[in-house]
Structures are given as structure tokens and as C-alpha cells.
Amino acid sequence: MKWYQAIAGLYVFGDSLSDAGMVFQATGGIYPPSPTYFQGRYSNGRVWIEYLADRLHLSSKQTNNFAYGGATTGNVGNSYVPNLLTQVKSFTQTHQKNNPNALYVVWAGANDYLQGVNSATVPIQNVTGAISSLTDVGAKKFLVVNLPDLGKLPATSSNTNSLNLSSLTQAHNQGLRRSLKVLNQQHPDLEIVTLDANTLYRQAIANPAAFGFTNVVSPCLSGSQLCGNPDQFLFWDGIHPTTAAHRIIGETAFSAIQEAGIFTYSRTPTQT
After folding, report:
1. How many domains does the structure of the chain reveal?
2. Using CA atoms, how far apart are residues 123 and 108, in angstroms rounded to an integer?
3. What are phi and psi of 192, to 5 degrees?
4. Quick one: pLDDT at residue 195?
5. Is residue 114 part of a domain?
6. String of DSSP letters for 169-193
7. Mean pLDDT in the chain?
8. Residue-number span of the structural domain to which 71 is assigned
9. Quick one: which of 48, 52, 54 has its CA closest to 20?
10. What pLDDT, in 10s, does the model give residues 154-205?
11. Where are the beta strands (DSSP E) in 98-244?
């Protein structure tokens, strides 16, 4: 059996799907509003990266989360929210040398398209650029997440832009896959694991019962109205998943990392 060194820490860059309280902190606890949203998360409980950290046996001190709700990949949208490239830049400026056994997580792009970007070219360049910047300070292990179908969210599914968002999602995911392959060819020592969120969402929508869901179309939170059984809903609001869905994303991420062989156990084996 081949053994691998345990992941020594997590560094997370992205948007509201990974934000564990950055916007909440920046707004003095005003947004996202509590208690409708859980302690600064864009959900009714913890988000996927926190469930993943649990599975990797990492403490909160070993998890460094720079993700901001509303973040785009680059210079689109709200200038008050640090975009992906800004998040990475502020990190690399203060961390000139990094532990190669840490895992660097990048999940961004949805806000670019939801805010009107009509081509996948620049968002893909921004995501791969962010990864390249991290490799320059010693990052070796990456978990990169693709986009769920942005035309199939409760907020967009009946929208006139729904089909266009679905096409952009497909273009983004295909382009991202190609770009990561090229990046890996340029840097053969990198270990890049892809979390296929697109397939995961699609499977949950096609077969809700297999995931413990009874509703994969409507949000649990609609206006000020709450559903009575959030754990059976895929979506908490028009865009974001429930914590039950986040848990599944976290578990799937853990499985992807294990299958790729960049993490097994933290203990030293007595035999091989």
C-alpha cells in the first residue's frame, strides 16, 4: 500500500459557497442576516469546506478561509468585495513560503455569469491565474471545483436568461478542465483534484431520494417564509444550498481527495 503525508492545512479562496463568515465580519454582523442565515454563512448551517476540514481532522486554526460572498473571479461587480485574484494576491503578499502539504481550494466563477459576464474566457483565465500565483509561493496540492448548472437554480430556472446561463456553465467547466490539464503539464509536480459539483447537483436533481431530498426545485427560504424540513431541501435560498447539501458536497470532496491519493491517514503506518 502506498502512503501519503496528511494534509497539513486548508487555504480557501472563492465566493459565498465557501464563505464561512468573511462578509458577516466585514459588515459588522449585518449580512447575511442572522438568524435567517447561520452565523455568517450563506446557508442554514455550516458550509462544505467546514465539513471537509472535519473529515481531514483539521482544526479551525489549520483552516484559513479567504472566501467572500459575492466575489467574482476578477474585476467585475462589487468593488467592496475582494475578488478571487485579490484574495490570492493579498495572501501571496503575506505568505512568501508555504507548506507544500497544505491543500489549496479554489471555487469561483458563478458570480461572474450571474452578474452578466457573457463569455467564459476571462473567468477561466482568472481561476487558472489564481492557481498559478499560489504555485509561485510553494502550493502543490489543489482542489478546484467546477460550477453547478447556473440555469437550474431556483433564482434562475424560470428566468429568460436560464438557457444562456446553462450554456455559460458548460463552457466554463469544459474550458476549466482543459486549462487545468495544461497547467498540470507545465507543472508536473502539482496535484490538482477536481470536484465535479456540476455532476453532483445534476444527480441530486435527477434522483433526490438518493440524497435524502424531497425538494430540489424550490428554496427552503422564500422571502420571510421558511420551510419546516430544511434537511430535505437542496436549496436554502434562490442560489445557495442547504447545510444538508453542503455536507454532501464536503463528503464528495473528501472522497475525490482520497481517490486521487493526496490524503489517506495522518498516522504513520506500521507496515507497508
Report:
1. 1
2. 8
3. -110, 115
4. 98
5. yes
6. HHHHHHHHHHHHHHHHHH-TT-EEE
7. 92
8. 10-207+243-260
9. 48
10. 999 999 999 999 999 999 999 999 999 999 999 999 999 999 999 999 999 9
11. 103-107, 141-145, 191-195, 215-219, 221-222, 225-226, 233-235
